[in-house]
Design goal:
The chain has 2 domains: 146 residues; 100 residues, Tumour Suppressor Smad4, CATH 2.60.200. It has a 6-stranded antiparallel sheet, with no helix packed on it. Helix content is 16%, strand content 38%. A hairpin with a 2-residue loop joins strand 7 and strand 8. It is built from 3 helices and 19 strands. The protein starts with 8 loop residues before the first helix and ends with a strand. The protein has 263 residues and is of the alpha+beta class.
């Protein structure tokens, strides 16, 4: 009889260290490592380990501190033309943040761990303005570690926004997203699905639900959601770019509405 695969607290600590090493961001005089780690577990593993999360978090922080100190002693290759100096590894922020989550997207099997790290955590009230986020995802399964993906999002405060999207969050609070790129994606996002504007909406809203693109003075929208997208009540043809008026109401899966305004 084959033993059931399960994740252990030790696996989690090792996976966090793997991600830290893989996600280090070298600068000219120092190297930054992520400060924020989100740990996703299969529901079986989450339920079994939830009672000892504080102990696992404590060991993760202890291991991160020791690894960070060790990396600083090893040094790194000198850049040509610069005076030799020892390397300086630092956490991107002053304190470590370790959070545990149950995988609700059915992406993991028992024993799998998904570590999602960030160099910095944008303020939740700053939607699409002046934030820089680097994220790196690592999955550890059966002792094997694989890098899933890495992306950077950089939005300059000095870049004038070209459009505004207004919507309500899960608490009914009005939120605003300022579009500063030629093309953005909107949807629920996910562990390995990036969206410029992530909506905390129902499952009917796809992980990537629609794209919005600017071409000169006009904007175009493309529906890629499973349950459709409408503009001012008219349903879009899936995967076909359609011009959107300068002011419009975008409806996702007949569940979530976004007010679009060209600036």
């Amino acid at each position: 009889m084959t033993a059931k695969v399960k994740a252990t607290g030790r696996d989690i600590v090792l996976a966090v260290l793997d991600n830290m090493r893989e996600s280090a961001e070298p600068l000219l005089y120092r190297t930054l490592v992520p400060s924020h780690y989100d740990i996703y577990l299969h529901p079986d593993d989450y339920g079994r380990l939830s009672g000892i999360f504080p102990s696992i978090r404590e060991e993760c922080i202890e291991a991160l501190n020791k690894e960070l100190a060790g990396l600083g002693k090893k040094g790194f290759a000198r850049l040509p033309g610069l005076k030799a100096s020892s390397s300086k590894y630092e956490a991107a922020e002053k304190s470590w943040a370790i959070a545990f989550h149950q995988d609700e997207d059915e992406e993991l099997t028992p024993g799998d761990l998904l570590i999602d790290s960030r160099l910095s955590l944008p303020s939740p009230i700053e939607y699409g303005a002046g934030t820089r986020t680097q994220r790196s995802e690592t999955i550890r399964s059966g002792g094997e570690t694989r890098k899933l993906g890495k992306y950077q999002q950089e939005l300059q405060e000095n870049d004038a926004p070209t459009a505004k999207l207004v919507y309500k969050d899960k608490d009914g609070q009005e939120r605003e997203y300022l579009m500063r790129k030629a093309e953005i994606s909107v949807g629920r996002g996910g562990h390995s699905v990036f969206c410029d504007l992530e909506l905390d909406g129902p499952a009917d809203v796809s992980r990537q639900h629609f794209y919005l693109r600017q071409e000169k003075a006009e904007f175009f929208i493309q529906d890629v959601g499973k349950f459709g997208t409408s503009v001012n009540g008219s349903k879009l043809v899936p995967k076909e770019w359609t011009r959107i008026p300068s002011k419009a109401v975008i409806t996702l899966a007949e569940k979530v509405t976004i007010e679009f305004q060209q600036l």
